[in-house]
Amino acid sequence: MDQKLETFLTLCKTMHYGRAAELLHLSQPAVSKHIQALEAQYGVRLFTYQARRLQKTREGDILEQYAFSLRYNEEMLLARLHEKSKTLLRIGATKSIGDYILLPEIRRFLAKPDQQLHFLVDNTAHLLAKLEDGELDFVVLEGLFDKQRYDFFLLREEPYLGICAAGHPFAGKQIPIPDLFSERLILREEGSGTRKILERELTQSGYHVSAFSDCACISSFKLLKELVRENCGISFVYEAVVKDDPRFGRFFCPPLTGAHELNVVYLKNTDAGHWAHQFLER
């Protein structure tokens, strides 16, 4: 890809001319010249300053999305030109989906001859960053994402519910939101799609996670589930995480609980959607 566009993408990532220059092993004036050349070529401003902070313009956002797709397509072209006997698919999935939902699709894919798979489980924020860096072909997310920035299709809707220890007073009931706050909330780390959904629904109902008597932040589903099972707190997860496990009670708390989308997400104007449909056999 054109070096000016590589410079542009690096500046979009760092939003700092000095840090971009370091990463690219260029001088800061050279970075500035690349950006100025792109602005002259397209006849638009790509960046501006607001209160001394570098900001992308609307046109800069448009070019960034184009450049992501261009870089990905060039990498795919090189792979096709030097095609090997095995097909490599690079997939990312959030923890709920990667650990509890996609096993049948992975097993089916690997059963076919000449298939290679790189499968990354991480939170939504990290996966989208790797998608934009061209390190993944597509990602499967349960969290919120910018639907104007990417192409996507719906995998399925999955119930999102509250969980507690099997003998907890909440088990099997519908609980008003204020009644939750006497409990310790066990939630996922920042950047997790599961956590963002809970925080969004709380905010829209006029509350915040700080309303709970205590909060514990746990990035491991295994540990989170063990703590809930041992009655150390309550949590909110997708049904697949605790499906058919009698050690957990389930409770409902509209609008915090309900069905949410699981989406397959990929860069615009690429063939990644084709590979995603093939992987999922859709």
TrEMBL record:
Keywords: DNA-binding, Transcription, Transcription regulation. Residues 1-57 form the HTH lysR-type domain. One of its GO terms (molecular function) is DNA-binding transcription factor activity. PROSITE patterns: HTH_LYSR (PS50931). Belongs to the LysR transcriptional regulatory family. This is CysJI operon transcriptional activator. It comes from Fusicatenibacter saccharivorans. The lineage of its organism: Bacteria, Bacillati, Bacillota, Clostridia, Lachnospirales. The gene is cysL_2.
